[in-house]
Amino acid sequence: MTLQRLDERFERWDELLALILASFAYMDGLIDPPSSALSLTPQSLREKARIEIGFAALDEHRLAGCVFCRPEPESLYVGKLAVLPAAQGKGIGKRLLALAEETARERGLGTLRLETRIELTGNHATFAAWGFRKTAENRHAGFDRTTSIEMRKALI
């Protein structure tokens, strides 16, 4: 497994988009509103990597996972953590989160923060097993119910 920074040298944006869409496909029809992943394009991913901190996981030469991180005043926001369904359960997501932790520490940030949809209870359990704790409930604009939860992991 190789971990690679998503920067100006990275050229596989179409493949990265396909990886994210495949990873998030199980959410179709399950979450409301639909995932913002559905509005991504290769160009928007390139721009996201320019303004955020992105990493890809490669299994030999095949893209297997990714994560995007955005520094905030007190935390590092972790978004678009994606692992190909066929590659799940092999520790790729955990390795990508370890990179996020390292990135936070390098920037003097003591917390990782993420949001996950309220319906995705399996994700809640996985993140809890990785040391995240629920810290808030949120709702998307126009919704009168909770649509996502915020989780944080303190870095010691």
Please trace the helix and strand order, writing H or E for each element: EHHEEEHEHEE
Strand portion, in percent?
25-35%
- By secondary-structure content and strand pairing, the structural class works out as alpha+beta
* Total number of strands: 7
Please bin the fraction of helical residues: 25-40%
Please give the radius of gyration in angstroms.
Answer: 15 Å
Mean pLDDT: 96
Enumerate the strands of the largest sheet in spatial order, edge to edge or round the barrel. 1-2-3-4-5-7-6
Sheet of most strands: 7 strands, mixed
Q: Count helical runs.
A: 4
Label the overall shape: globular
Distance between the termini: 26 Å
Q: In terms of per-residue confidence, which ranges show pLDDT below 50 for 5 or more consecutive residues?
A: none
Commentary on this structure:
- The protein has helices at residues 13-24, 42-51, 92-106, 121-129, and strands spanning 2-6, 53-59, 62-71, 76-83, 111-117, 133-138, 148-154.
- It contains 4 helices and 7 strands; from the N terminus they run βααβββαβαββ.
- A 7-stranded mixed sheet has the order 1-2-3-4-5-7-6, sandwiched between helices.
- α1 crosses α2.
- By secondary structure, the protein is α+β, with helices and mostly antiparallel strands.
